[in-house]
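[recover] target loaded
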């Protein structure tokens, strides 16, 4: 009888182990689905929606560590993508320009000439320029321009400013 009890306990343990493993796999799949759904919320930006508009940097979402910050003076940090493949920027007291390529939701900003004035200790000009140099994607989300930074999921958020002068 001892052997039967031992065999029953072993079978129960094996069934429980398989059940927990199956539940664990299901949860991982659900998390993947959630991540995919969140990524689907971003809409590929059509050139007509983003070209020749003065976009103002309003916020930054970072993934590691997770944080979201608001830019105190968005009108001091602007980017305008032009239809001829060039862009112009304002980084607080500095201005610059360069070229860009956009294919689907992939965006690459090539550096160009920029002024290098010291804008003061509270300026975000260095951070802004550093982030722009690592842009990899572009999309629209809730009428905001979203520039993806690198491969880690960081995102720069821009609100619409004026229609840019030609």
């Amino acid at each position: 009888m001892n052997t039967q009890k031992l065999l029953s306990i072993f079978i129960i343990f094996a069934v429980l182990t398989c059940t927990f493993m199956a539940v664990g796999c299901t949860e991982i799949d659900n998390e993947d689905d959630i991540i995919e759904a969140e990524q689907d919320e971003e809409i590929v930006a059509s050139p007509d929606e983003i070209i020749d508009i003065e976009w103002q940097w309003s916020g930054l979402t970072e993934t590691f560590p997770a944080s979201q910050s608001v830019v105190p003076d968005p009108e001091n940090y602007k980017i305008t993508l032009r239809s001829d493949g060039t862009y112009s920027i304002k980084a607080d007291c500095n201005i610059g320009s360069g070229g860009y390529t956009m294919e689907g939701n992939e965006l690459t900003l090539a550096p160009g000439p920029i002024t290098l004035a010291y804008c003061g200790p509270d300026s975000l000009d260095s951070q802004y320029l550093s982030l722009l140099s690592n842009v990899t994607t572009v999309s629209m989300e809730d009428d905001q321009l979203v520039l993806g930074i690198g491969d880690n999921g960081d995102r720069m958020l821009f609100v619409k400013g004026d229609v840019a002068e030609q």
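[recover] notes: Confidence is low (pLDDT under 50) at residues 25-40.
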